[in-house]
Amino acid sequence: MQYLPIFTNLKGKAVLLVGGGHVALRKARTLLSAGAVLTVVSHQFEAEFYDWQQQQQARLIQGDFDDSQLPGHWLVLAATDDDAVNAAVHQAATARQIWANTVDDQEKCEFIFPSIIDRSPILVAISSGGTAPVLARRLREKLETLLPQHLGPLAELVGRFRGKVQQKLQGFAERRQFWEKVFNSNIVSLVQTQQLDAAETELAQSLSEHQTSKGEVYVVGAGPGDPELLTLKALQLMQQADVVVYDYLVSEPIMQLVRRDAELICVGKKAGAHSVAQEHTNQLLIDLALAGKKVCRLKGGDPFIFGRGAEEIEVLLPHQIPFQVVPGITAAAGCAAYAGIPLTHRDYAQAVQFVTGHCQKDGKEPDWHSLSRPNQTLVIYMGLMKSAHIQAQLLAAGRAATTPVAILENGTRPEQRVITGTLAQLADLIEQQQVQSPALLVIGEVVALQSKLAWYGKQPTAAVFAQPLASLA
Known about the structure:
- This protein is of the alpha/beta class.
- It folds into four domains: 14-113, Rossmann fold; 151-208, Helicase, Ruva Protein, domain 3, CATH 1.10.8; 216-329, Tetrapyrrole methylase, N-terminal domain (Cobalt-precorrin-4 Transmethylase, domain 1, 3-Layer(aba) Sandwich), CATH 3.40.1010; 333-453, Methyltransferase, Cobalt-precorrin-4 Transmethylase, Domain 2, CATH 3.30.950.
- It has 17 helices and 17 strands.
- The strands form four sheets. A five-stranded parallel β-sheet has the order 3-2-1-4-5, sandwiched between helices. Strands 10-9-11-8-12 form a five-stranded parallel β-sheet, sandwiched between helices.
- A hairpin with a 2-residue loop joins β6 and β7 (122-126).
- α5 (151-168) packs parallel to α8 (196-208) and α7 packs antiparallel against α8.
- The longest helix has 18 residues, at 151-168.
- The radius of gyration is 30 Å and the shape is elongated.
C-alpha cells in the first residue's frame, strides 16, 4: 500500500495553495468545499479567486512564493506550471514537516487527491496512487451510476439516531445487527421516495421494539480457491458475521473478503499436523451461537461434499440454534473445469463418482470393482497419502494401467498445477513432482481431453463482475 487512505477534517484549518491557474482553481474548489481556510499565492489569479476573496473565503497573496508563508498551515499544495517553483514549495514544506501535494508530480506528494463520489455525509474515494488518475476518474464515473442519491439522506437519518441506539443497545455486535436490519427494511425505501418523516417514525418504532437477536450459524461453502467463484450469498453472509470459523482450505484471497472487524478462528485440519478435533469445532459453534453471535462456518468447496457440514449442523439442533447452508462449488467441479477436464463426456464418460481417500473409521474399504468401471470418471478427494494404495486397488479390480489420470494441485488458484499421466504412474508422479495438499486425483478417459481443453493461465481472463473499460466512459 503506497498511500494510506484517510479522510481529513479541514474545517477551519489553514491550507496554502501556490498557483492561481486552472489547475489550482480545481484544487481550491475541493479544499473550500471541505471548509479549509485558504491562502493562495500567485502572480495571476483566475476570476473566481477574486470572488472568494470578496466573500472572505480565501486570502490572496500576489507575488512569489516564500517559505515564510508556510508557518501555521496544515497542508501545502504546489499547482503552478513552473517545475522549479513546485519543487521549491515541496522542499520547503517537507523541511517543516508540513504535508505537501505537487500537482502531476507523484514523487513530490506526501498526500494525493482521490477521485471523490459525494453522497454527503457518505463519501467514496478512489485512487490509483497517482499512477493512473484518468482511470480512477473513469471508475468514479461508473460508480456514480451505481450509488443512489438517497444514500446521503439515509446516512443523515441514521446519524440522528446513533446516540439513541448506543444508549439502548450496549454491545457493538448488537448495534451492528440492528443497523443491518434497518438497512434491509422498508425504511430505506421511504427515504428513497423522500418520505423522510415516515422513515424517521418507522426507525424510531424499530428501535423501541428491538429485541436482542439470537445467535445463528451460517454454514458456507467457499469454493475451491478462486474468490470469484464465491456465491453472492456466501459473500453477503461473510460480511454479516461476527465470527468466522474457517478451514485451512479457504484461500487467503477469500479470507480478505471477510468483514474486517470479524473475529477469525481457524479450526483447520492438515494431514500429519496438529489438527483441531471435530468435537471441539462442534462445541465452539454451539458456544458462539448461544452467546448471541452470528457465526460464519466457512469451508473450502461445498459443506455437504466431504465437508462434514451435516455433522456440524446436527449438533446445533438440540440447542435450537438457527442455521443456514450456502452451497459452494465443490473442488471436483471447480478444479476439473479450470484444468480443462470435463467430468462427463458422451464419448468418454457417462458417470462420475466422488470419493474420499480416507478410509472409514472401521477400516472398511470402498467397492473397488464399482470404482474401477470403464467410461466413468473417478474424482478422489484427500487421496495423496493413500495414492499408492488407491492405484494398487484400482489395478487389481480391473482398471486398465493406461487409464489417464490427472493430479490437480491448488486448483483454480494462480499457483494451479496440473500433472497428467497414467494410472500405472500415479504414485510415482505424486512423489516425483512433490505434490502438496490441496490436491485432487482425477482418473478416467476424460483426462485425455485436458491437453486440448486447458485454458486457465494460458489466456487473459475477465473478472466475473468486470466490464470492459470502454463501458466505463
